[in-house]
# Entry
Amino acid sequence: MDCRGQNRDGKRFIVTSMAKKKEKDGKGSSTIALNKRARHEYHIDERYEAGIALQGWEVKSLRAGRINLTDAYALVKGGELFLFGASIPPLLSASTHVVAEDRRTRKLLLHRAEIDKLIGAVERKGLTLVPLAMYWKHNCAKVEIGIAHGKQAHDKRATEKEREWNVEKQRTLRAHNKAG
# Structure
């Protein structure tokens, strides 16, 4: 914004603001936490995005990146979805008049049709609902829920062997490209 004027001596001047607006680039990660253990322990069939009901101190802790999803799972109770076992430790500067329980049960917010589909998968097929990631989307915390079934020990070994092979393949290609 420019401001034009004239001082007492009759000289003209232009004042420009030095502050610039922050440009939003798509490079900034909005991911709060990933559940790498779930990807190792389960085969993920389908993924859903769910909102989560949080208290004020929990949002502050999430902004600071303080969450642990490794032992978390989702259950259906009374036709609603709840997240169990997710640990959000409170900040030291959290208010003293609120009793902060870091492993409390949190409600997951989905459309009724999605909840019905998840209930069917869990109750009829015996599958598990596992939180895969937590991230910010338009200033709202979202949880990515996966419908999963457990891996056997040999499946885990095969996945590990395939991952190691891909790393070795990439190293070989990089070495070949540098030499050539």
